[in-house]
Specification:
With 221 residues, the chain is mainly beta. The chain has one domain: Protocatechuate 3,4-Dioxygenase, subunit A. 10% of the residues lie in helices and 26% in strands. The protein contains 3 helices and 8 strands. A hairpin with a 6-residue loop joins strand 5 and strand 6. The protein is globular and about 45 Å long. The N and C termini lie far apart (46 Å).
Length: 221
């Protein structure tokens, strides 16, 4: 019964009203400074990005992949602070062992748990996006756990960037993070809150807004 509840939860677009409200709170705003570009060497190419936002329970699976659950929310804003609708957001991250694994299509057809490794979604009218993933491991114990994003929109400049977890002590050991100017580091660190799943296990909720160069030509407040 617990498994059924957990699976139904993963299939819900938004699971908790409190987190839905939190996703648009002003205290998450970063002043609409442009998000620093951070290119990931692990980007698999758009042709290998799966077409759904649930990396833990991808389409065709009935059992979630192992690992600490992470609920990811955010907004895409243009340089005028206007929420950007219909932006494509791609996300990928390492598995629990710190490995970037991009399964072959056939791996999704069997009943065994599978971490998809990548996902994609499109922002809604308020610029919001949602992903479900697992807390990433760190390969070789070096660097920090992080999530990688690519944001594209017809009216803005494409952006590759990285999201770090607030309060994670390993951030200061991450080479890419260290190289960022101090003023830019808060722009790639997401607010983290505890998250309680329906089966009683604990996970994390991380929220962060991404601001891209350019602006929606047809939208104003």
């Amino acid at each position: 019964m617990r498994l059924l509840v957990a699976c139904l939860f993963f299939l819900m677009p938004v699971s908790a009203k409190a987190l839905e409200d939190a996703a648009t709170r002003d205290d998450y705003a970063t002043g609409c400074q442009l998000t620093p570009p951070m290119r990931s060497n692990a980007y698999p190419g758009s042709e290998h990005i799966t077409s759904y936002n649930n990396l833990v329970l991808p389409k065709g699976k009935s059992i979630p992949a192992p690992g600490q659950f992470v609920y990811v929310t955010g907004r895409v804003l243009d340089e005028r602070c206007v929420p950007l609708s219909d932006a494509r957001v791609e996300m990928w991250n390492a598995d629990i062992n710190g490995q970037f694994i991009y399964p072959d299509p056939g791996a999704f057809a069997n009943p065994y748990p599978l971490f998809a490794g990548t996902g994609a979604t499109v922002t809604d009218s308020e610029g919001q996006f949602i992903f479900y993933t697992i807390f990433p491991g760190v390969e070789g114990g070096k660097g920090a756990p992080k999530l990688h994003f690519r944001v594209t929109h017809e009216d803005t400049k494409d952006l590759f960037t990285t999201l770090y977890f607030a309060g994670e002590h390993r951030n200061t050991e991450d080479v890419a993070f260290i190289k960022l100017p101090e003023a830019l580091k808060p722009l790639v660190v997401g607010a983290v809150e505890p998250f309680s799943r329906p089966d009683g296990t604990l996970g994390l909720h991380i929220h962060h807004d991404i601001t891209v160069a350019g602006h929606d030509k047809f939208r104003r407040f």
